[in-house]
């Protein structure tokens, strides 16, 4: 899973800074090397303040949850879904689903 062509919705491209987009896909790639993954990966992004980004990466089956906190120049608050349908991977804001 998650080793096919990757696409992003307009909202994801416009609302999520490039560095954070790359971080999301890097976290998926790292988890993918460990084995079985759910087709739906969820990322809860929260701006803690003007320089701290919180990110929670989770999935349901197998259950997975990991939290990150790092310094970031443009922290954002959003929920992101990354979905693999077998043919391609799509990253989108939750409200675009």
Automatic annotation (TrEMBL):
<dbReference type="Pfam" id="PF06124">
    <property type="entry name" value="DUF960"/>
</dbReference>
<protein>
    <submittedName>
        <fullName>Uncharacterized protein</fullName>
    </submittedName>
</protein>
<dbReference type="InterPro" id="IPR009303">
    <property type="entry name" value="DUF960"/>
</dbReference>
């Amino acid at each position: 899973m998650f080793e096919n062509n990757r696409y992003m919705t307009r909202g994801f491209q416009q609302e999520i800074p490039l560095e954070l987009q790359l971080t999301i896909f890097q976290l998926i790639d790292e988890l993918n090397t460990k084995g079985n993954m759910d087709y739906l990966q969820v990322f809860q992004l929260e701006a803690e303040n003007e320089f701290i980004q919180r990110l929670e990466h989770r999935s349901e089956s197998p259950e997975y949850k990991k939290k990150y906190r790092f310094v970031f120049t443009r922290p954002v608050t959003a929920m992101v879904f990354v979905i693999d349908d077998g043919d391609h991977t799509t990253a989108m804001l939750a409200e675009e689903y």
